[in-house]
Amino acid sequence: MPYKPHDPSSPIQIPTSELNVLEYWNEIDAFKTSQKLSEGKPEFSFFDGPPFATGKPHYGHLLAGTIKDVVTRHAHATGHHVERRFGWDTHGLPVEHEIDKQLGITGKADVLAMGIDKYNAACREIVMRYSGEWQYTVERMGRWIDFDTGYKTLDPSYMESVWWVFGQLWEKGQVYRGLKVMPYSTGCTTPLSNFEAGEDYRDVRDPAVTVSFPLADDPNTSLLAWTTTPYTLPSNLALCVNPDFTYIKVHDVERNTNFILLEKLLGTVYKDYVPAGAAAATGKKADAKKKKDDKEEEPKFKIVGSFQGKDMVGWRYVPMFDYFTEQYEDRAFRVLADGYVTDSSGTGIVHQAPSFGEDDHRICVAHGIVRDDEIPPCPIDESGKFTSEVPEYQGRYVKEADKDIMKHLKEKNRLITQGDITHSYPFCWRSGTPLLYRAIPCWFVRVANMSDKLVALNEKTRWVPAAVGENRFGNWLKNARDWNISRNRYWGTPMPLWASEDMKEVVCVSSVAQLEELSGLTGIKDLHRESIDQITIPSKQGKGDLKRIEEVFDCWFESGSMPYAQSHYPFENEARFKKSFPADFVSEGIDQTRGWFYTLLVLGAHLFDKAPWKNLIVTGLVLAADGKKMSKKLKNYPDPMEIVSKFGADCVRLFLVNSPVVRGDNLRFREEGVREILTSVILKWINSLNFYLGQVELYEQASGKKFVYDPEAAKSQNVMDRWILASCQTLIQHVDQEMSAYRLYTVIPKLLDLIADLTNWYIRFNRTRLKGSGGEEDTLSALNTLYEALFTLCLTMSSFTPYTSEMVYQSLRASSPAPKEGEDVRSVHFLPFPAMRKEYYDPVIERQVKRMRAVIELGRVIRDRKTLRTKMPLKELIIFHHDQEYLDDVRSLDSYITAELNVVSITYTSDESAVGIKYRASADYSVLGRKLRKDIGKVRTGIPALDSSACKAFLADKRVQVNGVELVDGDLFIARYVEQSEEDKKAFESDTDGDVIVLLDIRMYAELEGQSLIRSLTARVNKLRKEAGLKPVDKVDVVYEFDEGEEDALRGAIPGNEEMLEKAIGTVPVPASQSNGGGKLLGTEKRVKEAESGGKEEKYTLSLFGRD
Q1: Which end of the chain has the lower number of beta carbons within 10 A, N or C?
Q2: Average pLDDT over the chain, rounded to whole?
């Protein structure tokens, strides 16, 4: 089916046009066809991070998909074969959490009662819940990627490769089972990795209590410890001091007991106490007394002794609770010392519960309180509730039990102070429940011992933007800790370890074939828990049957294995894998610096001593318009597909890619921004195409010949032709260079500039040429140029705006030359990225036009400021610049300036005195202030006082004294301006862009008003033709009729301008009194705003009549 042609005479609906393109792509199987066309070309490899299909795509997914599509399309267009396979992340907490909510699962007992097979079957049912929506969204966004051969992490082939990855780490001795205090999610009943724990920090209020631990041999003296987790006190086994601190013993007068703590932190217990150091700084008196009603009372405490922390080691104290005294009495409940204790808060003595703190566990193991292979007291279950080991609080969620624990301590006189504190606390990124830190037997991959290698490998890769890779990610790598890869869950790839009950014999299985060989079973088809948990392996050490451990892999381990598992490596596709690893390109959001990017790098380094990517684009986050996180609950953002249906996918793509988010910053999504792309970019591009098609039709009708673009045509000598073609070559060079460096954010502005150049400058300045005013040869040259500019835009924009590029390209095909033999030109996406044509490259002409435009834009600003209509001719434009080259550049194009600004003459000068040029200085005080510090005040007052001669001298000398402070080159901005008398201002208005200065004669001259009338007449006729729906080739007669009582001002203006009118509007208007009235009336002008606001000489009405 051929492409439905674009009709330039009908208003275009971009979303409808895109659906037309999409239908055409499906008809010609465009993506697969492009893949076949690129077979045998050099490979460009791309790894796509797999999303979950349990939720619908959001703007972050649209952003990531667009960037991936842009880069891979460009790679294809630059001569590569790019395999693009979609992947699905199907295992892990996101899926299980949905099922737990759906089925009311609260813990392990519920799952076992239901049966792991049924639980996993429920998970399997929902993992692809929104896959249809995903595929529709991805394809509607114009992204080309293969869903048919995509991978899923639940596929047995994928899971087997994950086993192989783990097996390689096992063989290298990089896996171990350790008892470590880990962040634990009670909502998901599983430990999390350290990078997952950092995903969701929130400010919360927690209790802050100071409790006493009486010394065993001096019950009237207590050690004081401060904690924000009262629920950990039943598990206390030790107290820790800093060996280098000096602690004091105070006698509490009110309580008649003694306390030991840091003197600096007495304020924790005695709120009115001012430490000696703080007293000296504030001028207050340090003491232990309190005042009431201005009367001095007795001291609240007295210092009665002091001790070095190291001398306190071994002191024994009375346990807070008796739950674990029998088990640990001989080795616990004593004072330990470690340098991690600080003097910034609390009491300088830290209570140790080795099941609930990483440092607690480390210190207790180091001092023999607990062994490294035993689980310390941890009287809470998987849901965060107290167990029967603490009967008073059994079944209570630990955070909820805090109040009752504090009440109990108060009754025992062990609660010294009670309050609360607001601090940042980690929550589970999936369930939203506060994390607990608890000792858990986990399986770890060694990472800490290779952090230097990770840093070095990462430094060999390219990050865009570089700062994220160097700082955020680089710093994370430098402090990398061993990675907990095990999860006590069900729906995931089971860890392939078969072990004896005592864990002394452990067998790692790396493939299905190995499992069948070791177990004696055959025909294993699935690797999920329900299929393999019952499989045993005979022990080689006489320990009976080895059983698989319960844990499954963290889903991050699975996604990090994607480069290997997507191809079932090493069991299949070995050659393909070796060609694609490491990937040329990956891209995801900044949140993946501690997620997918990290796991990819760790596994790549362990397996192959390589970073698994060469180039990486990291994006910021897409936020709601108010700067908050997008929330379905708050409904603070528009539905993505509604925006696509309203404005088109290309507008959304351009808005996202041409935003700070591609530089790693956050983006506030605004519907208005997408609308602006539609009106200022896409529609202007289409308007340029429509104009071209209209002029081709006009030429073909007038000449009787078909226009076909000639790539071998002689180089045009027209300045604007040379400029726009030179701009095309610069664009091609820029896009090629910047895309090679993956800097998408520098590409889009240049592409948009060319669209603006084409519509706002080239077409505007060449309308009459394209209509045939310069003869057939010149018309062909202009049409050839406009075709090439539009075609270049199609090819350079095709990766960014695939739909619009296709639509414009298809519209150009009618005037395209015949394809070469065997060349498939059915789609713009089958064509290569354009090569720069050196014969068109001309930086001089680009510089000249750039300067000409600067002058024109300044002239327009002056006209707008003084409300001088462009159709009113002005007598003189004065252009000042100190550089003769600049003046010569502008002079070479002065005909365009006189026409555009409607001025009679231009004067060029570099004589400052003739124009009244003066100099003034300014500065960026925020930057200068960091340099000058205390002297910035002198400079701020002195700069406005610098006279013009001093400012001019600074440009030459590069230094100046301002109120005794020397400023040098770079400290000041010097600008030229025109100093005018009040009389001068009545004649000339000036403006500058900081480089060139222009002065425009703003006075009215009677002899120039006739020209204004002709311009106004031409504009009004063209507007009426458009309103009547006429094409450029339609010939009409124009009749005008002045309002009753108004003088016919056109009668004197038209003579001498007949030829110009014929070229501009195709006829010479006549007054109604001279019209023969023979043709059909096609349209009559309604009174327009321009006519109403014009002078009496414009008070007329136009009518159009068809020619017989």
Answers
A1: C
A2: 88
How far CA 1088 is from CA of 871, 992, 1043, 1050, in Å, comes to 16, 34, 14, 18
Output the CA–CA distances (angstroms, integers) from residue 173 to 169, 446, 450, in the order listed: 6, 9, 13
Buried-exposed string 236-274: b where 16+ CB fall within 10 A, e elsewhere: bbbbbbbbebebbbbbbeeeebbbbbbbbbbebbbeebb
pLDDT (tens digit, 9 = 90+) per residue, 621-644?
Answer: 888 887 778 766 667 788 889 999
Comparing C-alpha atoms, which of 85, 83, 82 is closest to residue 149? 85
| pLDDT for residue 194 | 64
Residue 205 pairs in a beta bridge with 422
What number of H helices and E strands is found in the chain?
44, 40
Q: Which of 882, 875, 1079, 895 is closest to 997 using CA atoms?
A: 882
Tokens for 893? 């194009």
pLDDT, position 1028 = 87
Mean pLDDT of 513-523: 94
Tell me how far the alpha carbon of residue 169 is from its chain's centroid.
34
Distance from C-alpha of 737 to C-alpha of 836, rounded to nearest angstrom: 12
Q: What's residue 310's pLDDT?
A: 93
> How do residues 430-471 score in pLDDT, each as one tens digit?
778 889 888 888 899 999 889 999 999 999 999 999 999 888
Residue 397 Cα distances to 222, 355, 385, 394, 772, angstroms: 30, 17, 4, 9, 85
Q: Which amino acid is present at 932?
A: L
Residue 1087 banded pLDDT, cuts 50, 70, 90: low
The pLDDT value given to residue 280:
44
Task: For residue 259, give the H/E element and its range.
Answer: strand 257-262
Q: At residue 410, what is the residue type?
A: K
Write out the DSSP string of 470-525.
Answer: IIIIHHHHHT---EE-EES-SSSPBP-EEE-TTSSSEEE--SHHHHHHHH------
Tokens of 1098: 């414009």
- From residue 94, give the alpha-carbon distance in Å to each of 137, 157, 428, 829, 835: 21, 22, 12, 37, 47
Question: 643: closest CA among 186, 1072, 99, 62?
Answer: 62
Distances (CA, A) of 523 to 216, 531, 569: 66, 11, 20
CA dist 1025 and 1018 (Å) reads 11
Burial class (CB in 10 A: 0-12, 13-18, 19+), 1058: exposed
Peptide bond into 1032 cis (omega under 30): no
Residue keyed to tokens 């979609």: 86
CA distance 600 to 556: 9
Who wins on pLDDT, 290 or 9? Answer: 9
Largest CA distance in the chain: 127
List residues bridging with 226 in a β-sheet.
210
3-state secondary structure of 389: coil
pLDDT, residue 1077, reads 67
Per-residue pLDDT tens over the stretch 847-862? 999 999 999 999 999 9
Q: What does the pLDDT read at residue 1095?
A: 57
Looking at 278-406, which runs of residues are DSSP E strands? 291-292, 295-296, 301-308, 334-337, 349-352
**Distance between CA atoms of residues 672 and 680, nearest Å:** 12
Question: Interior CA angle at 463 toward 458 and 466, to 5°?
Answer: 105
Q: Is 838 helix (H, G, I), strand (E, B) or coil?
A: coil
Residue 455's φ and ψ, nearest 5 degrees, are -60, -45
Query: Which of residues 1049 and 783 earns the better pLDDT score?
Result: 783
